[in-house]
Amino acid sequence: MAAMKWWGWGEEGVAFSHEDKPGLGPYIAENLGLDISRPTETPKAFAALDVPEPVLADPLRATLEEAVGAGHVSTEPHDRVVHARGKSLRDLVRQRRGDLPRVPDVVVRPGSEEEVTAVLQAALAADAVVIAFGGGSSISGSLEAEAGEERTIVSVDMGRLDRVLGIDAASRTARVQAGVFGPHLEEQLSRQGWTFGHLPDSFTHSTLGGWIATRSSGMQSDRYGDIADLTRGLRVVTPSGTLVTRPVPSASTGPSLREMVLGSEGRLGLITEATVHVQRVPDSRVILGYLFPGFAAGLAAMQEIAAAEVAPSITRVSDAPETRFSFATRKRSSPVDKLKSKALTTFLERRKGFDLGAMCLSFIGYEGTGEHVKVQRKAVGRIVARHGGLCIGASPGELYDQKKFDTPYIRDFLLDRGCLADVSETAASWSQLDPVYTAARGAAHGAFAELGVRGYVMCHLSHSYHSGACLYFTFAFMPAPGGGDALEQYDVVKGAVQQAFVDNGATLSHHHAVGTEHAQWLEQDVSAPGVALLQALFEGADPQGNLNPGKIVGARHVGVPAGNHTGSPE
Ligand SMILES: Cc1cc2nc3c(=O)[nH]c(=O)nc-3n(C[C@H](O)[C@H](O)[C@H](O)COP(=O)(O)OP(=O)(O)OC[C@H]3O[C@@H](n4cnc5c(N)ncnc54)[C@H](O)[C@@H]3O)c2cc1C
Questions:
Q1: Fewer Cβ close by (within 10 Å): the C or N end of the chain?
Q2: Could you tell me the pTM of the whole model?
């Protein structure tokens, strides 16, 4: 897997382009007052970065080299900078500025669970900080070492643990090493006719271990489940040995250890392997586009689908601002397409009574046997019609499916033009969804007004459940020139949206984890005793405070008792 850009998303040489999308420039000019025709800002050149010298004592280097082989221990500056942070907006802005107060001192790449154990033991013995690194796509500040950290920081890149170890066809599970990236996992499974079906937007640059450690969710979660549903057994190298949870379908063994590891962000140990659900590659897979007269109608339809005896693989509906944005990113169309689109808009306005400005685009996916897909489509079609919506066929869904992994590049495109764009996502019960939507939108607009900037906020429902759904907000604005540091302005908007979530009974994050970005809302979300329990869990598992300290809840560095710096942990 090629390393990601140190300053942005994806691989060097791949970028979002506006040139084949004639509607985008005028749309952004109108809504953000931004001329996108030329970039105004570029990341610093790598050679101009002031990368701090690594702090790595010879004995620790020697033990690490002995554990994994010298070729898998790197103090090379580019490697260390790539491993310093994830891809949150704050991460990208500071990387681009060359703001690198504390980067890992060494990147280590173990190739087996035994090597992971040896690395952890060496690091603990030297009282070093250990930060597990999957794909580096964290969007919540889960990877960055604390600014004042004085101990040696060891980034443990799990990427060599990338194999499917076996498939139990009867149980429909697979044993998989945790460092495998999404595409490589699917490739190995599909050779044997299986799929994992977990497709986060970051799929190309994230790993199984990272998904588990952040409680990730993919676009097909309605059918396959979130990573928490997909993960059965776990192997985790911890300071007190290897934690093993059995891959049984359910267990009554006290509070779930499996659940404790899910979302633990590297604070309990290094996940080396998981036994996960797999499914047979479906015969048929289709994503259909639908239009609704408004967002309330779209949400009501999704709620009815969740309550009905139908099981689509994807339920997604955008609000009107996101729908308008999607249409603005369409590629230049042929004369025939233009005619078709004109005919559709005329039909929608005149025959269906749609207000085109309020119209909402939806994608609903179906998978399974041809017959199953047919039955599901019909059932969903009836529900959509009851809410005033209509199907616009498979082509918009096919386009969405092909382009879904390109979308993340747009954030760098906007940063190149000085524009800050980011996301905040949450989950709430069906009864609370509309208040959360209204409050979060209102909070974003309030923050734009407070800053005196033009901003844009849009939203979609992205995952449906028995009792509620995930709402995913994207916001963008041009920071006010005299308004202080861009990241401080960003905090005003991001903070307002997050606060609206917790004030309205929603969670601080549905699938992006806590990290450091969301930690300030944790107590409001899970209560003070909840935070105390998490703190006790992390301190109990990692008494020296070496494992990714400061994430989820603040860490206390207890320190190693004198004389114990060379001994092995028990
Ligand atoms: C553009 C973009 C789109 C995204 N889309 C989605 C989406 O659709 N759905 C979604 O859920 N998330 C999404 N994310 C967030 C991110 O991709 C997820 O949090 C992902 O699960 C992180 O996986 P990773 O392998 O990149 O982990 P990393 O970013 O490397 O690490 C994340 C955390 O997990 C820990 N960790 C990683 N591997 C291990 C391991 N083996 N053992 C123990 N701890 C470990 C790290 O220490 C860190 O705390 C997106 C992010 C971006 C930037």
A1: C
A2: 0.95
CA 217/CA 199 separation, integer angstroms: 8
Q: Cα of 210 to ligand 1 centre, how many Å?
A: 4
266 CB less than 6 Å from ligand 1?
yes
Tell me what pLDDT residue 2 has. 62
Active site residues: 472
- Buried (b) or exposed (e) across 323-355, using 16+ Cβ within 10 A? bbbbebbbeeeeeeeeeeeeeeeeebeeeeebe
Q: pLDDT at position 568, please?
A: 34
- Kindly state the average pLDDT of the residues 65-76: 98
**Angstrom distance (rounded) from CA 435 to CA 276:** 36
In the structure, what pLDDT confidence band is assigned to residue 408 with cuts at 50, 70 and 90?
A: confident
Whether the CB of 509 sits within 6 Å of ligand 1: no
CA distances (Å), 46 to each of 160, 211, 487, in order? Answer: 26, 29, 22
Q: Facing residues of 153 across strands?
A: 129
Listing DSSP states for 248-268 in one string gives: -S---SSS-HHHHHTT-TTSS
Ligand 1 atom at minimal distance to the Cα of residue 205: 26
pLDDT at 209 over 60: yes
Beta pairing partners, 175: 166, 275
Length of the chain counted residue by residue = 570
> What would the two tokens of residue 32 be?
């953000």
Q: Give whole-number Cα distances, 245 to 7, 168, 195, 251, 477, in Å.
A: 37, 17, 23, 10, 46
8 Å CB contact between 250 and 492: no
Under the banding of pLDDT at 50, 70 and 90, the label for residue 1 is: low
How far apart (Å, rounded) are the C-alpha atoms in residues 210 and 564?
31
CA dist., res. 127 & res. 544, Å (int): 8
Task: Give Cα 221 to chain centroid, integer Å.
Answer: 13
Distances 324 to 34, 288, 320, 387 between C-alpha atoms, Å: 17, 18, 6, 20
251 C-alpha vs ligand 1 centroid, how far in Å?
27
463 lines ligand 1 (CB under 6 A): no
